[in-house]
Specification:
With 524 residues, this protein is an alpha+beta fold. The protein contains 13 helices and 27 strands.
């Protein structure tokens, strides 16, 4: 009986606390968009971006988020960019945010503009868009400039800093200011400078996060990079969710958000959020970002210790050639001892493989147009350094500034049918492509300008493979190559070290039990 009474009392206390903080929330309706920089200058965004994701979860308003971008300073500083990636990618996972609404401006600017335009043009008087701008104005200006002028009046842009972010320009990439945004016909509101509130507070005031039993709050506390706990940009979102123009609180701080964060569950949903589309569900991560569990190494020298130097794991990436190239690498000989692959332990047949890559600065060879060369082998049945399988080529020809990522390579022992135009560049047979009958090993992808080469930006790659039926190569959302009647029709896959420093990350896969007709993917 006593235990039952204690349980009832605790439940009443929890209900009372819940009701208290819910009464603070006075959401005005509409939808939410948020933009952060953090990849240059403003280290407070490390924690503010994570805090905004936590607040959306804690207030129960994450379904109202239609756009969230980060790293919107167009002059990137890589060390800060990596911090923003951690804040956002882990924040999305910790607080169960729909990842389809998240955009990395450094790699997805065009997609971010398209998404903002799509969402903004849904706006009406009764369904406005609240746009919290926590960085320079250039990228937000590009978003709004793309929107139908008739719809801009339903966008309210919120700022809280009257000088640095609003007036910050850095030609030629960044030339637009807060005044330029005003001129586009949106509504603009500058609330009180949140750096002067308890959103920027003494660290000891939030030690309750550091000392919490909830690992999510511990993580959130540790995202702070300043001498004070500065999540000042989150004050804009708080102003919106507490009423906006109808009494939104611009004088809040840690005392206000503490009960909301304390109520967040420490149970973390694994994998992708449940509100993703059917096409996005079913992917699983196969590189854990911490070590190479589930993978094994092969290298030309057969020296496993050397292979461990060539393939290292750091900041949730596989870093190839991350050291200073010691003499033992036998470089610039045309027979580098470091040619190798990191192979999956499991074999696959019908799947979509997604990953990202970017080039580094180091060159591991003295070649000409093949200086930046790597690749992903799939359907591998003989795991040699030069395996039997099919290759999704990753290459940039710096002598002609031409992309070759997505090219097909057919090593000895593998085969497929390939269709091309008269210039021997991929062209689907439905579009007039002719079956290529020459016995050549390299088959060029269709040309595209949608790629990142030596600019420290990531490329998003996708390989769609359906057993022995067909393979589709995609680069940054575009289909660039395709093969039919594959031999082999199943096998492991491997990521290559070859001629230059390269980074791989976000390696994930979705398997299928049955063949999906190629037309489904060609229409997307």
């Amino acid at each position: 009986m006593k235990q039952n009474l204690i349980a009832v009392v605790l439940a009443l206390i929890a209900t009372s606390i819940n009701a208290q903080y819910k009464n603070v929330i006075n959401y005005p309706g509409g939808r939410i968009a948020i933009s952060h920089d953090g990849n240059n200058y403003d280290k407070d965004d490390y924690v503010a971006a994570a805090m905004n994701l936590a607040l959306l979860e804690g207030t129960g308003l994450k379904s109202k988020l239609v756009h969230f971008d980060h790293s919107n300073h167009l002059k990137n500083k890589d060390s800060q960019y990596m911090e923003m990636l951690e804040s956002v990618t882990k924040g999305v996972r910790h607080f169960n945010i729909d990842s389809t609404k998240i955009f990395d401006v450094q790699t997805q600017l065009d997609a971010a503009i398209a998404n903002f335009k799509k969402e903004a043009e849904k706006s009406t008087e009764n369904n406005p868009l609240w746009f919290c701008i926590g960085g320079p104005m250039e990228v937000p200006w590009q978003y709004i400039n793309a929107v139908d002028p008739e719809k801009r009046k339903f966008i309210t842009c919120i700022s809280h800093s009257s000088w640095f972010n609003e007036d910050h320009v850095s030609p030629p990439e960044m030339t637009h200011t807060w005044e330029d945004i005003k001129a586009l016909g949106v509504k603009t509101i500058r609330i009180k400078n949140q750096n002067k509130t308890e959103w920027n507070t003494k660290k000891e005031n939030v030690f309750w996060m550091r000392d919490s039993k909830n690992p999510k709050l511990q993580w959130l506390y540790n995202r702070n990079a300043k001498k004070t706990f500065d999540s000042s940009d989150s004050g804009m979102l708080w102003w919106v969710v507490t009423g906006a123009e109808n009494g939104g609180n611009e004088n809040a701080g840690w005392q206000d958000y503490k009960p909301i964060l304390d109520a967040i569950s420490d149970n973390e949903k694994r994998g992708l959020p449940e509100n993703l589309t059917t096409e996005e569900k079913g992917f699983k991560t196969i590189f854990n970002g911490k070590n190479l569990d589930g993978w094994y190494l092969k290298i030309r020298s057969r020296d496993l210790e050397l292979a461990k130097k060539v393939f290292t794991v750091e900041n949730e990436m596989i870093h190839v050639f991350g050291d200073s190239f010691p003499k033992e690498y036998n470089l610039n000989t045309g027979a580098n001892d470091t040619h190798g692959l990191i192979y999956s332990e499991k074999a696959y047949s019908k799947y979509i493989l997604r990953f990202e890559y970017k080039w580094g600065d180091r060159i591991a060879n003295n070649f000409d147009k093949w200086q930046y060369d790597a690749g992903v082998y799939y359907h591998v049945i003989n795991d040699k350094v030069w395996p039997t399988g099919i290759e999704y080529q990753i290459r940039y020809d710096h002598t002609t500034s031409r992309n070759h990522t997505g090219d097909l390579i057919r090593p000895s022992g593998a085969d497929y049918d390939w269709f091309c135009n008269e210039e021997e560049i991929y062209l689907h047979p439905n579009d007039g492509g002719k079956l290529y009958t020459k016995k050549h090993w390299l088959h060029f992808a269709s040309p595209t300008e949608n790629f990142n080469a030596l600019n420290n930006k990531w490329n998003q790659c996708e390989i769609i493979v359906m057993g022995d039926q067909y393979a589709i190569h995609k680069l940054n959302g575009e289909i660039v190559n395709m093969a039919f009647n594959l031999e082999p029709g199943a096998g492991i896959f491997g990521f290559q070290s070859e001629t230059a420093e390269i980074f791989y990350r976000n390696i994930r896969i979705k398997e299928f039990d049955e063949i999906i007709p190629a037309e489904k993917f060609l229409k997307e």
